[in-house]
User: Fold this.
Amino acid sequence: MDLNRRDFLKGAAVASVVAAGSLAVGCTPAEEEPAEKWEYDVDVAVAGFGAGGAMAALTAQKGGASVVCVEAYHQVGGTAMDSAGGATGPGSMEVAQANMPYSKPEFLQTFVDCIGEATNVMEEYDAFIRPGAGGVGFTIGAESTHKARVECYEDLAEKFVDGGGVLLMETKAFKLLTNEDGSIVGLMARKSDGTEIKIKAKAVILACGGFQNNPELKTKFFGPMGDQVFCRAVPTNDGTGLLMAKEVGAALSTGLGTFYGHSMAANADVEFMDFYEIGSQYHDNRCIVVNLDGKRYYDEGAGVAGDMNNLELINQRYARGCVIFDQNIYDEWGSISAGGDKGADRTAEVIERGGRVAKADTIEELAEKMSAWGYHKANTIKTVKEYNEAIDNGTTADLEVPRTTGLIASIIKIVEPPFYATEVVCGVSCCYGGVAINPNGEVLKEDGVKPIPGLYAIPGTAGGITSAHYYRSSIGAAVAYAWKAATCALDYVSAGQE
Ligand SMILES: Cc1cc2nc3c(=O)[nH]c(=O)nc-3n(C[C@H](O)[C@H](O)[C@H](O)COP(=O)(O)OP(=O)(O)OC[C@H]3O[C@@H](n4cnc5c(N)ncnc54)[C@H](O)[C@@H]3O)c2cc1C
Assistant:
């Protein structure tokens, strides 16, 4: 069979890959090791080819390692493909500590030290990127479109394969393999047709995201409303990385109940790759958001892009709320994304896709319509009235739930009819808690001190790094730690060969 690079990306069968003679230098086909069947024998195996996994795979390859990467989804790039693509980070420890005050300094130090290294790798691979916000890190894609972001990672995947790497698409890692002393010797993965493959690897890097799409783990770690939380990430991020690591004795990090996300239109038919443009109600930090009691529950303007309000939404009944706004906010902000670019008319799209949007000429009428969804009518009317009065009086900071401008929001009176209410549900894009690692990205044993030899993990499979502070940096943290983990894995592999 005549295979080309695209066949790798489409998940060509292992046997076909071997037949095509396209394995990376250093990969040994199974036949050479009759005692135990390994489909691949490499220096480094990477689980996941999202922004972090791609960085880990390319860094390891650049350092001379043979690398196999398994990617569970049918598209490369992971969650970042449906994001603003900002892979930024703090330019100094001062900035890092000011913006992520609860993080351990040693974790921030790796972030600060390695975000530039990760950017260098992207530049060396001539990736389609733009400068990062504030001059630190990079922004994915030659321009701010989903197409450009996907192009960036498809191009990197091709370069990885051209460089001798093996990329197996729609292939999910599900088990880590260890020897008698607990050191990692490889992993097992399952292809979409159910075929299991065994990869022998001196080091394994887990870059397979968090547990965004695992209702049991979300309930366990996020709390009673966890299973209601919308997976605002690639659907393959189902916590397998965490579970695999735990099975071989890994400790879990702090902050397992914290995450980054944005509230999403409830009940609307939105899928991955619709989240940035349509599902995310990015204008909510200029609006009032009420819970089922018709009350505000958090400062809508806090945080970067409504992320703090979303984090609090999980503590409201059914993790739901209603975003209330007027025609002025609709016109000004109804199609502006968090990144500031203009996109689809989100409200119209949500209606089109079956989401709950009410429209009325008065707040009383709007509250009446919302009451049909279970929202307390009298409280809703009172909340809007008090909010508008506080703006008139300059006393929004004195409201029972204070209102500030936050980083990018503004405080706007809700007075121009018609009025709108969009029902939203809490969404998770990135888990801040996960497998416990040290600042080198080495996965720690249950004692929380000693590393499991040969096992590495990066955020969001790894957790406890940025301590519930988004700082527009979940992709940034992933790529910075991916560079660090791959660099340490290279040292580990070469030390083992001495
Ligand atoms: C609308 C939106 C806007 C956002 N904007 C930004 C932004 O501007 N800046 C920012 O920093 N963050 C942003 N984010 C968040 C950011 O995209 C994610 O936090 C980031 O991509 C990291 O996600 P992750 O670590 O969970 O893994 P991912 O990037 O999703 O990567 C994990 C990869 O592993 C694969 N995988 C999962 N399980 C397995 C397995 N068992 N075996 C093999 N492969 C597996 C997945 O398919 C995926 O490709 C945004 C997110 C969304 C949805």
Q: What stands out?
A: The first strand starts at residue 40 and ends at 47.
